[in-house]
Amino acid sequence: MTPFSNDPDFLDLIAVWQKNREFSDERKAELLERLESDPKLRRELAGEVQMVALTSTVQRGESSWLRLEEKLSIEEESDTPPPHEDAIMSRIRGVDSTTPSKTPTRIRQPRNWWLGMAAAAAVLVLGLALILQDWTDSQPSEETSVAKVIRIDGSGRTSQGRTLFVGDLLRAGEKLSMTRGLVEMAFLDTGVHVIASAPLALTAKSTKRMVVHNGQVKLHVPPQGIGFVVETLERRITDLGTSFVVTVGEKGSEVLVLDGQIVVGDWNGGAETLMFEGDLANFDRDGAVDLHSGGISGVPERQTPQGRLGPASLRGRLIAFEPSPSTKSPDTDQIGARVLPLIRSGFQDESCLEGLKQLDPIRFAGIAGTYNNFPRTAGLEPYNVQLGWLAWYRGKCASPEPGRYRFWGAADNYLLVAVNGEPVFEGSRSLFALPEGLKVESRNYPSLPLLNHGLGFVSGEWFEVGADPVQLDLLFGEEAGNQTSGLLLIEREGETYEETSWGQPRWPLFLTEPLSEPEINELKSLRNHMEDNLKGSFSISSEAAWDVQPQKDAY
């Protein structure tokens, strides 16, 4: 017998986990408070559930919540003790654990299954807290405000007959419908940021839960919002600290993870699925599931990424490793590390490129869209796909007019721009390991969606340009594999730009020469696709193009 054998809270929490009793809202709140404040109780609960889990695992195989091991960074065949329950409670409260973080490892089937079960028992704390939080939030007062409207374009009406305006509050259980336009909201307390596009129908159940009936919703969830739930007719999505997009239509729903991780479960109590950055899943009305993995940008492949090289073109070269018989993906970034000496030298010392496969010249035609097939269409093959590739563009360029400028954009994986040898913009998903003196002061804008970049647009440093040309060096490419996308725009200080319905200025695409009509038409089609799917926007302006100065040898 344990000290908690006769503890009413302990016994009721076991009942919560087994879901075999109903409790009042007041009792649920009391249990949640006790669970959060009593570490001894949590440890005893973990031990109790561990024994139950061992028995049930033998009887019916791997438990669905064992999939959450990865969130706790448990590695295969590890001798490290399972995470302490206090660390789990820190995640529930949105506070970082004092335990150093590890890189999560994807677990297929732990061989040391006892440690796996111990880790799963530790997840009890997370599961119980989420269950209790769900219960205590399930029926808030109809007068309780749960979300605030930040921006609205179009007419949004609620189930209570209200027309919403900027600054209005959406109440618990209130359904919002829109036939056209877009709405941007922030959920109270949790800080969850939502951008939703019409045709739209959603219900804000509480500050920690919403139901999407129709439309597309992009969510950015801060640490204090971990555990936020999005429900559709087919699935229940629990956030684990991420950005993701949920699209609901007549045929079913779709989930795209932009950053971080989510847990997707069905309504029949079946196995849960842990989805990661870049994963895309479709769920139809009949229950069929189509899951894709791997860095999906969500925009079309560029069919004219280069065009015809001319005397006024900004020239570049493609760089990659020679083919290798090994097909194993590297544990470390190879191509980024290889070019670091080049960046550190102000793009003067090319000795680090010796021994690499190089293809030149190639033409710069702006960076916008998906580039999965770019190395192949440019003629780089064969090369080592697992070790990635880089395009290095270089030349002296004159700005349209003197002034202060800065770049906007992002890329999966690499995008860096240097002016006169000094980096002024880096929108790389995997940052170059630059020394302190060369690191770029960047800022993320999650409220301005961009491709599959969970943190939205990235802005670089302001830099001054006079009447004389400046030396431009631009690196764009892939760390490993062939899932590549990016967008690079330019802003001039003092210039005003037309805005999208969600408030993003349509900064011009960074160009260095006029484009052909087919190139312009393709970019316009790409822009329409991006705007329709909340993936950013841009303008195409020949007046904003920079002029490349003729050089005998750009390198």
Topology of helices and strands:
Blueprint (H helix, E strand, L loop, with lengths): L7 H11 L6 H13 L1 H22 L24 H8 L20 H25 L7 E9 L2 E3 L10 E3 L2 E5 L3 E6 L5 E14 L2 E12 L8 E3 L4 E13 L3 E14 L7 E4 L3 E5 L4 E4 L22 E6 L14 H10 L12 E7 L4 E3 L3 H5 L10 E10 L4 E10 L1 E6 L2 E5 L16 E3 L11 E3 L3 E3 L4 E9 L6 E8 L24 H16 L14 E2 L7
Helix pairs in contact: 2-5, 3-5, 4-5
Provide a short characterization of the protein structure.
With 555 residues, the chain is α+β, with helices and mostly antiparallel strands.
Structural class call reads: alpha+beta
Overall mean pLDDT stands at 78
As for the number of domains, it is 3
Instruction: Let me know the largest β-sheet.
Output: 13 strands, mixed
Could you say which overall geometry the principal axes of the C-alpha atoms support? globular
In total, the number of strands is 26
> What is the C-level CATH assignment of the largest domain?
Mainly Beta
**CATH architecture call of the largest domain:** Sandwich
How many helices? The count is: 8
Kindly, what is the distance between the CA atoms of the first and last residues, rounded to a whole number of angstroms?
Answer: 78 Å
Strand content: 25-35%
Cα-atom Rg, whole angstroms? 26 Å
Helicity level, as a percent range?
10-25%
Please name the CATH topology of the largest domain: Jelly Rolls
